[in-house]
Amino acid sequence: MKIVSVSDPIQKDMDGTPFPLVLQPQANEDFTLADFQNWISENSIELKEQLKNHGAILFRNFPIQQPEDFEALIESGQFEAMPYVGGAAPRDKVTSKRVLTSNNSPSSEPIPFHHEMAQVPNPPAYIFFYCHTPAQQGGETAILFSPRIYQRFRDIDADFANHVEAHGVRYIRIMPPEDDPSSAIGRSWKSTFLTDDPKEAEAKMQNAGTTWEWLDNGNLRTETATLPAIRTEPRTGQKTFFNSMVAAYTGWVDARNDPSKAVVCGDGSPMNREAILATAQAMDEECVNINWRQGDMVWIDNSLVLHARRPFEGERRVLASIAKS
Ligand SMILES: [Fe+2]
After folding, report:
1. All residues with CB under 5 Å from ion ligand 1
2. N or C terminus of the chain: which is more exposed, having fewer CB within 10 Å?
3. From ligand 1's centre to the CA of 209, what distance in Å?
4. How far is the CA of 115 from the centre of ligand 1 (A)?
């Protein structure tokens, strides 16, 4: 079978490299899911190399019909599964092994740019999406090349960028005891730590260097260890905007959380409001909006690329999976 890279109007040029890479079957090629699985399996090393170079791959017009197909393709790529521990979003398990719903948060709310699980010490190397049902309106997944937004962030305010780079950041979030589907950050502490037992949750937080406080109403206030905001990508030497500063500062709002208090510098000083808002604007200028079609699959190198979700109308079903390596 022949699979070709095509150019698409959504792509952007990242210093000579198209972002994302778009792969399709060659016209008139008829093949099955099993063929596609074999192809991925035979090319898994090269595909990872392409993810490193392009940041993301959009697979379009392939025979992917069910969540199980999506799961089988990820397995064929020999990606190492990992549990979803510590993320903020409410999710449901879809397949037996490794496919979850993407963030179940309300359709009217955008989900701001983030590297998946940037607020935990060991975030996934890859995140995968599959579109089972596109939204009627909106609902694009936007992707953003992290070295590019790091450069824009520096250009906006070099002093603040240096400060954040030197001191890192901490995230503060109040979690409910039960999942709150009305909130984009409504994941309960029980779901977050995969336990009903407060002691077990405490052990996991202790392990991650997170400090905590149990509040009167069963809520849990957590403050992460100081985490680096800027990372140097070891494979390419590029600096990446590996943090959730903008997401937390503009998006972590609900009945329990005040976003202006959701992230602080590692030395306890507050964010620079103007710099954060200007960076949010730059993100929208530099990103690519993936206009989902049924059966689309996107693979993202989570070290190099941030993602976001646009608000939508209708029954959107986009599923997700993550991998350690
Ligand atoms: Fe995400």
Report:
1. 116
2. C
3. 22
4. 7
Q: What is the pLDDT of residues 185-220, one digit of tens each?
A: 899 999 999 999 999 999 999 998 999 999 989 999
Same domain? For 221 and 131 the reply is no
Report pTM.
0.89
Given CA atoms 150, 53, 97, 95 in this order, what sign does their dihedral have?
positive
Distance 118 CA to ligand 1 centre (A): 10
**Number of compact structural domains in the chain:** 2
**103 CA → ligand 1 middle, Å:** 7
State pLDDT tens for residues 239-268. Answer: 999 998 998 999 888 999 999 999 999 999
End-to-end CA distance of the chain: 27
Helices (H), the chain: 33-42, 44-54, 67-76, 146-156, 158-167, 189-193, 198-208, 245-251, 273-286
* Separation of CA 229 and ligand 1 centre (Å): 17
Give the structural domain span for 219: 147-283
CA of 308 to the centre of ligand 1 (A): 7
